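Consider the tokenized backbone below.
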């Protein structure tokens, strides 16, 4: 069932010329609108010649040459030669010789599985080929990415290659950030965003092609998308479906999509020398840094890619590397340190793709994102400590945590492969060969089997898919996890006893947030504090990057942070105060600077808040402010987060109420030293201990009042007994 792709046979001597012409025409079509392709093509060919002739003529006539016009022509021809250079680059990609054949296969089959190594050009080229072949005349081309950074950076690259402005013909859509317009015909988006598109347009009528890219990553959203696109492809024969993957388990995708043909793009791969450590490393971060410096000092030119597990680790490594290379003076070549992770501001993301200057060496410190989603040219050395951060979920307790976990063999292989793309490479694995063979799993477990499903269950319910047990999952989630999700949604009031969506559930679906956050917002209607609650929700959605704590000014930074916590209002209200104070200064950056607050995060919060305000309007909840009634605010929070309550223990730790587990208040919390008897928390993180983060004091009576299906009096007995000395409980 593999489509035969034979490179020699298909080397059409005219292909390049044809492709170039097609490309010019498509560019012109874009510029002049798609009505008249022939006209557009003619226009395009002459647009530069015309103007140059015009200027030549003016000069010869002795006229005053319009300098501005002259500049314009120069700019245009510069842009043209940049485009030509990019086109040359595009032609060198492994996918290029298969362009026509691929288009033919897409034309002939509704569903096609495409396999090609990372960097072969699947993500950046296929949507362009499809556009050049006219698919965009029938509808948008969607290309999904599991990661937001990948969606953004690939869209930027493709808009560049097509010579258009990002957000115009080529755009991206990620949660809370829509960089598309009426003009957009190629849309890169996170898989989660395409999932949300189904809510507004269940048959995806505005799309002509859906490319589920990086399918091998098997994120939760991708897995759900599989089921949905498979379903709509049956009644939309005109919709083309491409499933693209960087790994060779394509047969599984093919099987799932009713034996869809597989199109394999032969990769170019150079040999990679694999080195293991002789003994296990105690501190992989330190080992990675030392290895990078050793490579820099002893190995021939070539960039280094280091796989780390997250932003914090990357920042630490960056700092240590900077410190250690500072003393080296001019003895060694310059080492450029380039971090890349999901929250890295986009203007800094571009830096990793810039070519390394002559004589220097680049070291890229990346999360898993560089494993397959992003290709950085020039990497010759890979350092693989063998870990990644992975979500794990305990359906019994409903606890979700992000854990640093050993990677799979498949991941290790992908990582090594990153070094052999442009020439022979070397991979340094910071674990032993014995570890590799005996301790690592073959493949990573798909996310659907190790995550909280409340969000997707709510989404599927609102798409009218009720029988979740029989949904066409590629790999089904544990039944227990599905039940847990249904249970939570019921407790939140999103589903009724029959498992049907309620009005509250429908309102919740409108918000692109986790169900507990959505519920908190919906509940704020009752307490007339939606204005405050959306500020809190926006601040929580930004993550933990609001405050910064420079190493040399930690005390000042901590004091500034504590200012927002006076009266032990709790972290949620603290965040609200930060937002409101910033707003009062008319969104001043100076104010942020003085208070050790990241302006970028605040701007993002403002943006998210605006969008949440818009969504409130859509679900017909009035924007109401009640900032002096802290109980109203806390009750709204509790309405969403009641499953995450904890009670103080004698030793200063906490015990979660519903599924008892010991946790601690995170040191960054405003309540870390206050230790209220009862708290509600936003998230549980596992670092050196089990910490709860973003914590607010709770009146335990609210648990029974707001979640009577979930808590009984006995769960909160000690507070009840205080108030009712003769009643039930311990009195
Ligand atoms: O999807 P696949 O891994 O097959 O390849 P791709 O992402 O389309 O990358 C093709 C080429 O585009 C690579 O050589 C990348 O270096 C380049 N590229 C880039 O320069 N900037 C990006 N943001 C993405 C890709
Ligand atoms: Mg790709």
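A designed sequence for it:
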């Amino acid at each position: 069932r593999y489509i035969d792709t034979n490179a020699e046979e298909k080397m059409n001597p005219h292909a390049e010329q044809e492709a170039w012409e097609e490309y010019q025409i498509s560019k012109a079509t874009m510029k002049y609108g798609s009505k008249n392709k022939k006209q557009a093509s003619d226009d395009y060919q002459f647009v530069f010649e015309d103007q140059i002739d015009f200027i030549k003529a003016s000069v010869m006539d002795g006229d005053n040459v319009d300098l501005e016009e002259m500049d314009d022509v120069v700019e245009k021809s510069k842009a043209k030669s940049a485009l030509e250079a990019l086109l040359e680059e595009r032609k060198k990609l492994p996918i290029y010789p298969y362009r026509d054949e691929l288009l033919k296969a897409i034309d002939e089959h509704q569903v096609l599985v495409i396999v090609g190594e990372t960097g072969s050009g699947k993500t950046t080229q296929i949507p362009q080929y499809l556009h050049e072949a006219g698919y965009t005349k029938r509808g948008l081309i969607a290309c999904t990415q599991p990661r937001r950074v990948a969606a953004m950076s690939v869209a930027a690259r493709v808009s560049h290659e097509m010579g258009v402005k990002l957000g115009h013909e080529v755009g991206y859509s990620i949660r809370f950030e829509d960089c598309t317009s009426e003009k957009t015909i190629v849309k890169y988006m996170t898989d989660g965003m395409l999932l949300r598109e189904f809510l507004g347009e269940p048959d995806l009528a505005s799309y002509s092609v859906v490319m589920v890219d990086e399918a091998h990553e098997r994120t939760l959203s991708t897995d759900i998308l599989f089921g949905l696109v498979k379903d709509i492809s049956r009644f939309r024969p005109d919709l083309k479906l491409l499933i693209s993957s960087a790994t060779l388990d394509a047969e599984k995708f093919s099987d799932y999509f009713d034996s869809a043909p597989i199109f394999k793009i032969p990769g170019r791969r150079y040999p990679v020398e694999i080195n293991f450590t002789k003994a296990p490393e105690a501190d992989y971060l330190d080992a990675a840094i030392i290895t990078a410096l050793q490579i820099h000092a002893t190995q021939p030119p070539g960039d280094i890619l280091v796989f780390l597990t997250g932003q914090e680790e990357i920042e630490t490594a960056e700092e240590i590397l900077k410190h250690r290379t500072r003393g080296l003076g001019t003895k060694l070549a310059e080492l450029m340190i380039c971090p890349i992770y999901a929250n890295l501001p986009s203007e800094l993301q571009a830096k990793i793709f810039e070519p390394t200057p002559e004589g220097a060496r680049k070291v890229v410190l990346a999360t898993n994102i560089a494993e397959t989603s992003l290709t950085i040219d020039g990497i010759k050395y890979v350092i693989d400590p063998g870990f990644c951060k992975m979500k794990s979920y305990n359906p019994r307790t409903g606890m979700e945590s992000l854990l640093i976990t050993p990677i799979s063999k498949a991941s290790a292989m992908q990582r090594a492969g990153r070094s052999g793309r442009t020439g022979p490479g070397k991979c340094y694995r910071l674990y032993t060969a014995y570890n590799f063979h005996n301790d690592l799993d073959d493949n990573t477990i798909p996310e659907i089997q190790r995550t909280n499903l409340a969000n997707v269950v709510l989404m599927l319910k609102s798409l009218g898919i009720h029988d979740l047990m029989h949904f066409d999952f590629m790999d089904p989630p544990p039944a227990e996890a599905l039940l847990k999700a249904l249970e939570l949604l019921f407790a939140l009031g999103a589903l009724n006893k029959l498992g049907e969506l309620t009005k509250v559930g429908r309102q919740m679906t409108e918000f692109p947030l986790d169900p507990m956050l959505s519920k908190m917002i919906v509940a704020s209607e009752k307490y007339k504090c939606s204005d405050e609650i959306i500020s809190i929700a926006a601040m929580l959605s930004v993550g933990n990057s609001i405050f910064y704590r420079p190493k040399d000014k930690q005390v000042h930074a901590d004091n500034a942070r504590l200012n927002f916590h006076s009266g032990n209002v709790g972290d949620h209200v603290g965040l609200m105060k930060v937002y409101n104070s910033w707003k009062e200064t008319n969104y001043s950056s100076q104010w942020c600077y003085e208070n050790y607050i990241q302006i970028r995060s605040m701007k993002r919060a403002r943006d998210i808040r605006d969008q949440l305000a818009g969504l409130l309007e859509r679900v017909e909840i009035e924007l109401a402010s009640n900032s002096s009634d802290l109980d109203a605010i806390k009750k709204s929070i509790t309405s969403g987060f009641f499953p995450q309550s904890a009670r103080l223990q004698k030793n200063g730790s906490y015990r979660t109420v519903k599924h008892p587990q010991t946790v601690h208040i995170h040191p960054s919390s405003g309540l870390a030293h206050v230790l209220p008897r009862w708290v509600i928390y936003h998230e549980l993180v596992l670092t050196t201990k089990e910490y709860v983060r973003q914590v607010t004091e709770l009146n335990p009576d609210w648990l029974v009042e707001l979640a009577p299906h979930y808590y009984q009096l006995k769960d909160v007995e000690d507070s009840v007994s205080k108030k009712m000395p003769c009643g039930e409980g311990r009195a």
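Residues 93, 116, 118-125, 153-154, 157, 353, 375, 377 surround cytidine-5'-diphosphate (ligand 1) (CB under 6 Å).
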